[in-house]
Amino acid sequence: MLTSSFRVSSTQVPNTSIVPVTYQQPSNHTLAYPQHSSPSMGQHYAAPAPAPAGLESASVPPPTRPKIPYDQFTDHMTPQLINDNYTTEQLPGKIKDLWNSMTPADRGLWDQRYQEQMMEYEKAMDDWKRGQRRIASGGFAPVNR
């Protein structure tokens, strides 16, 4: 015999026992859909295989791209200008004036630092992509350096 917790009542009784339920997506069950098609009725996709032992986790985020030289200069100067009692409304204009008044040699130092960071970022991104391919293939992909 089947029973149900659903009751039909002619009187409305407030239900004080309702507890909000939050949905948590299982961490190891993600759906992988093909890139150029949409799932149709009856079409099922398997979750990706777990990473083989010894390989990086699939949840490793990609490396962060470095900020452009002006944004790095802004991050560098903001605390100094706040200590010099500039208001938050005055900061953008003052930083722009300082940036525009820099000599090409001084600005070149910021550009050189950015180029070095970009080289490190590109190497880290290549390594990250290589690791993602290894995880996706479920095995080891030889590294050609």
Radius of gyration: 28 Å
Order of helices and strands: HHH
Report the structural category.
mainly alpha
Mean pLDDT: 73
Shape: elongated
> How many helices in DSSP terms?
3
Distance between the termini: 68 Å
The fraction of residues assigned to DSSP E strands is under 5%
Tally of strands: 0
Helical percentage: 40-55%
Uncertain residue ranges:
6-13, 25-48
Mind summarizing the main beta sheet?
none
Polypeptide structure, described:
The protein is mainly α and 145 residues long. The chain has a domain of 61 residues. It is 41% helix and 0% strand.
Write the layout of secondary structure elements.
Elements: H1 69-83, H2 91-100, H3 104-137
